[in-house]
């Protein structure tokens, strides 16, 4: 795995939409289309919707400015299935750690019909045009939507203790950028697990496929985190283990 960088979120994070769509060379577009045609045969659930790729990053100690342009899902899927490919899709996405009142951190295992089946990751997702306010993406709105869809949680809820931007992740396997939030809830791990299970059952009853097939809880104590990292050999999003270690470092400090 390529090294990743986890930093505190700066005071301002601004993601701007460039209306000029990304133009890829014809031979690259043909590669993407051929690959896409094969993938759709294997997984008819795939849809080639809009995706936003980073075209420019400007960073200071106080502000992170990111410009993105529109591409498509087949460009993104080709990138994550072909490490070090030419003309990669470099996305920025939001994700969120959910922390319970008894100090467990919650994340999920991706369902088998997703592009990364079985992978462990925090709730999150890419940006879409519904997150735009003018030409600026509302990142809090984006992650709020993901929380509702994937975990059945509402940010504006009596059980919410705090909701803050926490970390920015850069570099890593595909050089994606992630703005990570932290949601602390006044629920125990057992109570939260019951809420998650109810949410997934409601989705299945409506004929929908949940994003996560399983929810996982790790106690934010050094011994428990190290045991999880050493003994859980599931496929993991590249930020997951570094973020868990970052929480332990903060606790020690």
For this entry, give a set of tags.
253 residues; alpha+beta; Nucleoside Triphosphate Pyrophosphohydrolase; 8-stranded mixed sheet; 34% strand; globular
Description of the structure:
By secondary structure, the chain is of the alpha+beta class. It has a single domain, classed as Nucleoside Triphosphate Pyrophosphohydrolase, CATH 3.90.79.10. It contains 6 helices and 13 strands. The strands form 3 sheets. Strands 1, 5, 6, 7, 8, 11, 12 and 13 form an 8-stranded mixed β-sheet that branches. A 3-stranded mixed β-sheet has the order 2-4-3. Strand 5 and strand 6 form a beta hairpin. Helix 1 crosses helix 2. The protein is globular, with a radius of gyration of 18 Å. It starts with a strand and ends with a helix.
**Succession of helices and strands:** EEHEEHEEEEEEHEEHEHH
By oligomeric state, this entry counts as single chain
Q: Can you give the helix content as a percent range?
A: 25-40%
Number of domains: 1
Structural Rg: 18 Å
Task: Give me the secondary-structure category.
Answer: alpha+beta
* Number of discrete helical segments: 6
CATH class descriptor name: Alpha Beta
Quick one: overall form?
globular
Percentage beta strand: 25-35%
Which fold name fills CATH's third level, the topology?
Answer: Nucleoside Triphosphate Pyrophosphohydrolase
Low-pLDDT segments, ≥5 res = none
Largest beta-sheet characterization: 8 strands, mixed
Q: In CATH terms, what is the architecture?
A: Alpha-Beta Complex
CATH superfamily label: Nucleoside Triphosphate Pyrophosphohydrolase
Annotation, overall tally of beta strands: 13
Q: First CA to last CA: what distance? A: 27 Å
């Amino acid at each position: 795995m390529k090294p990743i960088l986890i930093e505190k979120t700066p005071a301002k994070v601004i993601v701007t939409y460039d209306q000029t769509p990304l133009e890829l060379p014809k031979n690259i577009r043909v590669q993407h289309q051929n690959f896409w045609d094969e993938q759709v045969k294997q997984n008819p659930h795939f849809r080639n919707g809009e995706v936003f790729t980073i075209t420019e990053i400007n960073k200071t100690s106080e502000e992170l400015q990111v410009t993105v342009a529109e591409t498509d899902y087949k460009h993104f899927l080709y990138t994550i299935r072909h490490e070090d490919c030419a003309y990669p899709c470099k996305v920025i996405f939001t994700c969120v750690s959910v922390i319970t009142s008894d100090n467990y951190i919650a994340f999920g295992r991706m369902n088998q019909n997703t592009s990364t089946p079985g992978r462990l990751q925090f709730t999150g997702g890419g940006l879409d045009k519904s997150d735009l306010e003018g030409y600026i993406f509302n990142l809090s709105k984006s992650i709020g939507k993901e929380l509702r869809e994937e975990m059945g949680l509402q940010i504006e809820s009596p059980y919410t203790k705090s909701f803050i931007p926490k970390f920015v992740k850069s570099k890593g396997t595909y050089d994606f950028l992630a703005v990570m939030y932290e949601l602390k809830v006044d629920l125990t791990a057992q109570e939260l697990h019951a809420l998650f299970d109810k949410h997934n059952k409601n989705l299945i009853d409506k004929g929908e496929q949940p994003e996560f097939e399983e929810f996982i809880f790790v106690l934010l104590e050094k011994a428990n985190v190290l045991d999880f990292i050493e003994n859980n050999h599931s496929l993991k999003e590249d930020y997951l283990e570094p973020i868990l270690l970052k929480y332990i470092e903060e606790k020690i400090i």
